[in-house]
Amino acid sequence: MHDERQLPVVVGVDGSKSARIAAAWAAEEAARRRAPLRIVHANLWPSVRPPPLDASTGGDWHRSTDWTTVQEGECRLLAERLAGWQEEFPDVKTARVVTRDRPVRSLLDAALHARLLVVGSRGRGGFTGMLLGSTSHALLHHCPCPVAVVRD
Question: Per residue, what are the HEC states of the chain?
Fold first, then answer.
């Protein structure tokens, strides 16, 4: 059993406007609860495009890609997007996590040891007028802790 006071507020971010709004809400909630904040950026890194086939990679771009460099770039990008947060919330202990996985799976893993999971929603589940996106919808149905969906 975990001590509730030590469990973090977890927020999923993807660089969108709704994720920035959710992250601000999560930081305020973490400050109010005197809880740590864990910011999770989960991405399969679609910006990494396979190079043209050539003999140097043997057609296997995935193995020849330096994933450490890609992850460092993703971590740098996340840090840039969250610049200034420590000054705004100096009492909130913040951890940033970058994973190379699907957002739902990464957030559910993080939620196993969380007091609250926060996500934004752009409502792009495929149907006009749908209030929740597919990620928010999946998290609401499978999350082991309370979920807050923050709309932009």
Answer: CCCHHHCCEEEEECCCHHHHHHHHHHHHHHHHHCCCEEEEEECCCCCCCCCCCCCCCCCCHHHHCCHHHHHHHHHHHHHHHCCCHHHHCCCCCEEEEEECCCHHHHHHHHHCCCCEEEEEECCCCCCCCCCCCHHHHHHHHHCCCCEEEEEC
